[in-house]
Amino acid sequence: MISTRELKDQIEQLTEQNQSLTEELQQIKKLIQNQSNNQNQQNKNSENDNNSGGGNEISNIANDFLIFKDLTNQLELKMQKYVSNHSTGKTISQEDVIHLILNMMNGMIDWAMDYVSRQQKQQSN
Question: What pTM does this model have?
Fold first, then answer.
């Protein structure tokens, strides 16, 4: 059986992993954007596009972080609700926690992939 303290520690570890995943996803997104920008620059041979892109990119990243922060907060609330609903009078098994964490990570990865593909489609239009 797993105690509440162990569960809280696992949640904190998951939060740290989520932050690492966020950083990695941002790096991947930057690489994709850089590749897209390089292709656009080769096609247009225009310096104006290159100079104006920096400010918008920072703004887009900041907005992405705000969206991600909101989703992370919602995820934390849902996890707390799940734990409180399933821990009344009994302890949650380690398998339940692992299953919950894996489902959350899969959901986050799916969301990130969908988000990046939407951004790519918007940039290509």
Answer: 0.35
